[in-house]
Amino acid sequence: MVMKKRVFQQIASKRLKTIILEQDSRLKSYIPKTVWYRDDQLLSMLDKYGTVFVKPDKGGGGVGIIRVKKGKRGLVECKSLKHHKIVPMDQVHSLIDTYLKPGHRYLIQQGIPLAEINGRPFDIRLMLQRIDKDWELTGMAAKLAAPGKIVTNFCKGGKPYTAKDAVIQVCTSSASQKMIELKKMAYCVANALSERFKGLRELGIDAGMDDFGNIWIFEVNTRPTYGMFRKLKNLQMYNKIRKNHKLII
């Protein structure tokens, strides 16, 4: 008997995934304003939000992301994983152009002031997998940004942290309800994307919280890594994800 091989689909474009999620009424409020990178859009977004992130449409690991922050006296701070410069507003376009790779498309995303733990911003990775028909939330952990970093990625020094403990520090009296909301949001994301792309089998949702406890979806990875779960004290989630991953691939 020949086993039928499962289709394992990936979606490279962040913009395409964002558009699909924005079209779902259940998820629209979770999505930060996101547009294609253009000079005029950068100025408009900076004026409206104060801080924005320029990120490549394709790629992961925090590579190529630039935080652009409006400062005082007409100055703008541009910070990436490798560079940190402050320039006058009329020089910001030419500076960012030196960071962008030719032939690659970029996005501008509304900057969200992330909640912090001990002065370190954090977001939450929600891992979903499906072996056959139904999605299962198999992992959920916070990632604390390494000191001085603009991203929380584990591969860039982010520190794994128990999700519930992180949420409790932001939403002391409503942590249980916020955890339920995060999980419900994750399943909505999985269902919305898999309605369009039937071959999706694994998703890594990066969701953040601001100081008011509002949830924001920053990115959805369709072939996420899961090594960070191995660094948690309780390995139950890691073992479950690893077991499912072997069955999926």
In words, what does this structure look like?
With 249 residues, the protein is α+β, with helices and mostly antiparallel strands. The protein has 2 domains: 14-32 and 113-248, D-amino Acid Aminotransferase, Chain A, domain 1 (2-Layer Sandwich); 34-110, no CATH class. It is 29% helix and 28% strand. The protein is built from 6 helices and 12 strands. The chain has helices at residues 14-22, 39-49, 92-99, 163-170, 175-196, 236-248, and strands at residues 34-36, 51-56, 66-70, 75-79, 84-88, 106-110, 116-117, 120-129, 136-144, 159-162, 202-209, 215-221. The strands form 2 sheets. A 6-stranded antiparallel sheet has the order 1-6-2-3-4-5, sandwiched between helices. Strands 7, 8, 9, 10, 11 and 12 form a 6-stranded antiparallel sheet that branches. A hairpin with a 4-residue loop joins β4 and β5 (84-88). α4 crosses α5. The longest helix has 22 residues, at 175-196.
Give the helix/strand layout.
Layout: H1 14-22, E1 34-36, H2 39-49, E2 51-56, E3 66-70, E4 75-79, E5 84-88, H3 92-99, E6 106-110, E7 116-117, E8 120-129, E9 136-144, E10 159-162, H4 163-170, H5 175-196, E11 202-209, E12 215-221, H6 236-248
Antiparallel strand pairs: 1-6, 2-3, 2-6, 3-4, 4-5, 7-8, 8-9, 8-11, 9-10, 11-12
Helix pairs in contact: 4-5
